[in-house]
Amino acid sequence: MSNHEGYLTTHVLDTAKGCPAKGISITLFKVSGHAREEIASTVTNDDGRTDSPILPKDKFAVGQYELVFAVADYLKANNQVSTSEQNLFLSEIPIRFGINDVSAHYHVPLLLSPYGYSTYRGS
């Protein structure tokens, strides 16, 4: 166990519908060069958030990370794209970012619509 105070959270908001995005699978990877190591996975709850930090204080460390949001099933289930489309415009959304301060809270949200997305470092 470490004495780090920082942690990583995320959430997904459906900007097309104006509500939280429930049921999106999220995988967190630690990135080193061209290699990725899966370190956590979770699913968004009714509020579009994870039930706990995706990278809690005891595992929080400086480095490069990637969150991958599997959005295809969500977009299909919410009738935002055709269920017969083979090649969705957005099916997985990777967001790669760096953590430099182990004492800080990093919040990386995803604002989602069927044909676009945005993110930012939140608080």
Description:
- The chain is built from one helix and ten strands.
- It has 123 residues and is mainly β.
- Strand 2 (12-14) and strand 3 form a beta hairpin.
Per-chain topology:
Elements (H helix, E strand, L loop, with lengths): L6 E3 L2 E3 L4 E2 L4 E8 L2 E9 L19 E8 L1 H6 L14 E8 L5 E3 L2 E4 L2 E4 L4
Parallel strand pairs: 1-8, 2-9
Antiparallel strand pairs: 2-3, 4-5, 4-6, 6-7, 9-10
Quickly describe the structure.
The chain is mainly beta. It has one helix at 72-77; strands at residues 7-9, 12-14, 19-20, 25-32, 35-43, 63-70, 92-99, 105-107, 110-113, 116-119. 5% of the residues lie in helices and 42% in strands.
Helical segment count: 1
Task: Determine the N-to-C terminus distance.
Answer: 24 Å
How many E strands? 10
Q: Flag low-confidence runs.
A: none
Helix content: under 10%
Q: Based on helices, strands and strand pairing, what is the structural class?
A: mainly beta
The Cα radius of gyration reads 15 Å
* Order of strands across the main sheet: 3-2-9-10
Mean of pLDDT:
91
- Main sheet summary: 4 strands, mixed
Index terms:
123 residues; mainly beta; four-stranded mixed β-sheet; 10 strands; 5% helix; globular
